[in-house]
Amino acid sequence: MITDPIADFLTRIRNAMRAGHKVVEIPASNIKKEITKILFDQGYILNYKFEDGTVQGTIKIALKYDRATNLPAIKSIDRASKPGLRKYTGAKSLPRVLNGLGIAIVSTSKGVMTDKKARQENVGGEVICYVY
């Protein structure tokens, strides 16, 4: 049993990138699907596919690397809010990752979105993770 499925999701991506894998498979959930869509929209992953083969389903993520240096597109992907210590923030005090070069993924009342979009929508919420 996994106590923190989002941390497991982020760790599988981090480990696959460090090992140089092209594709990583992760057990699916609705919030993991939303985080995957955000990572794709922001250009951190190459592609993704949701498969419903099992009861839970899986997410296949094609990882993105720089062609010249073969370095991964994601330098760091860290969990912010943990089950033991949740981190909530208002719309005015949303975190900026590397002065706007990275993104913070936030779970709000209007859905899962980046910190920039949450500022535009003027909503706060739980800061899930930081990506740069």
Topology:
Elements: H1 5-19, E1 23-27, H2 30-41, E2 45-51, E3 58-63, E4 77-79, E5 88-89, E6 103-108, E7 111-114, H3 115-121, E8 125-131
Antiparallel strand pairs: 1-3, 2-3, 4-8, 5-8, 6-7, 6-8
Task: Give a brief description.
This protein is of the alpha+beta class and 132 residues long.
Mean pLDDT: 94
Number of strands: 8
The unreliable regions are none
Q: Tell me about the biggest sheet?
A: 5 strands, antiparallel
Give the topology string: H per helix, E per strand: HEHEEEEEEHE
Helix share, percent: 25-40%
Structural class: alpha+beta
Q: Distance between the terminal alpha carbons, to the nearest Å?
A: 29 Å
Rg, nearest Å: 15 Å
What portion of the residues fall into strands of 2 or more residues?
A: 25-35%
Helical segment count: 3
Gross geometry: globular
What does this 3D model show about the protein?
This protein is of the alpha+beta class and 132 residues long. The protein is 26% helix and 30% strand. The chain has three helices and eight strands, in the order H-E-H-E-E-E-E-E-E-H-E. It has helices at residues 5-19, 30-41, 115-121; strands at 23-27, 45-51, 58-63, 77-79, 88-89, 103-108, 111-114, 125-131. Strands 4, 5, 6, 7 and 8 form a five-stranded antiparallel beta sheet that branches. A three-stranded antiparallel beta sheet has the order 1-3-2, with helices on one face. Strand 6 and strand 7 (111-114) form a beta hairpin. The chain is globular, with a radius of gyration of 15 Å. The model has no long low-confidence stretch (mean pLDDT 94).
